[in-house]
Amino acid sequence: MAGLAIAALGAAGLVMRYAFLPMGGGAATGLLIGMVVGGYRMWANNRPAGSSSPPVFALVAGIVTLALMSIGAVWVRPSLRARYVPLVTRTLPSLSVDLPDWFAEKLDKQPEAGSAKFADPDGGGRFLEVRWNVSNPTDSSMFVSIYRSLGASLVSSRPATVGGHPGETLFMAAQGGSKLSCITYWHCPEDRRVIQVACFLDMSIADLTLFHQRILSTVKCHTLGKAGRPKVNLPKFDPPAGFYAMAQSNPVISAFVRGDQEYVVFTVATPGKELEAALGPDGSRRITVMKAECSLATLEEKQPVQQVQGALGHSRSLWLGVGSDGTGGKVRIALVNWHCDRRDLSFLGYHVSDPGQSIDQAVRAMLNARCHGTGPDGAP
């Protein structure tokens, strides 16, 4: 009898361990049954001489009871994790946030743009991610379009306040709603960055919301103050005749205008090659990006992505599209992006004009925009 009691205590402890700590459900159930069977055998083998064998129903009852305990542990585990998983402070570039002490698959150090990704120890490809990049304020249409291109759909959205800044939380679903993700984004004007916190975990929407809010409540951005404000890297552009530079009220772009309906814009450079990965090899994601960037109702590809040799020996991607602003007016978009291996930065610029105008001069100037020079920091 003592053997079965010891096995029952051990099994109960295993159930509690599974409820709070990562452990495969199959492994936990197998160990539970093994403990009960082992306890039953110990009871049978050590019974007093002449006593009867322990009833089989005790074994069956033990297995059934612990099977029910296993099911209960599986059911309550996500709620327990959402409420009680310990959080530790992570210091990121000009940002701090409390996150679970999980393995960091990625931990960028550049303040201009980057991400920190932490793998869920339960596996299944689940993770937490914090992303940041120097940018103007944006709205949900950009994020929703990008996630839709990855096979997810918007379930709901709600306003959020993070670190004193207004933002928005999006709930996205994939694979028929079986996989949920929660993304909150906001703009930090002190650092001139858009920051995102994304939770892609195996939880119900209620548990995911609770866990996500635990994290958001700890966020502190622009922690380095003005001294640590991320650097804005823009290419050196020599505009064609007739273009003039717009007043630099917006520090994260450079813009040049000719007439009323033609302009060239370069956005702030981003570290590494993530821009190329985000845009992809064809025009589909470029359509998503430029519809949001230029507030277009429609945009379709006019010419597929081409690789063109630009200034300083860099191969640059050129894409052309034609769109509408929803009032009947049409515009032509020429999008140029490239990676500068000298500075390990990716650049993006676009030209907007009336479809009837010649774009050769402006596009040629964009292809010749200089991304590095001979200075100590490589700036042009």
How do you describe this structure in short?
The chain is of the alpha+beta class and 380 residues long. The chain has helices at residues 2-20, 25-45, 56-84, 140-149, 205-216, 274-279, 284-293, 360-367; strands spanning 87-92, 95-100, 104-107, 113-119, 127-134, 152-162, 165-174, 179-188, 193-200, 220-221, 244-245, 253-258, 262-271, 298-309, 315-324, 330-340, 345-353.
Could you explain the architecture of this structure?
33% of the residues are buried. 30% of the residues lie in helices and 35% in strands. It starts with a helix and ends in a 13-residue tail after the last helix. The longest helix is centred in the N-terminal third of the chain and has 29 residues, at 56-84. The protein is an alpha+beta fold and 380 residues long. Helix 1 (2-20) packs antiparallel against helix 2 and helix 2 runs antiparallel to helix 3 (56-84). The chain folds into three domains: 2-80, no CATH class; 87-228, Protein Transport Mog1p, Chain A; 244-367, Mog1/PsbP, alpha/beta/alpha sandwich (Protein Transport Mog1p, Chain A), CATH 3.40.1000.10. The strands form three sheets. It has a seven-stranded antiparallel β-sheet with strand order 3-4-5-9-8-7-6, with helices on both faces. Strands 11-12-13-17-16-15-14 form a seven-stranded antiparallel β-sheet, with helices on both faces.
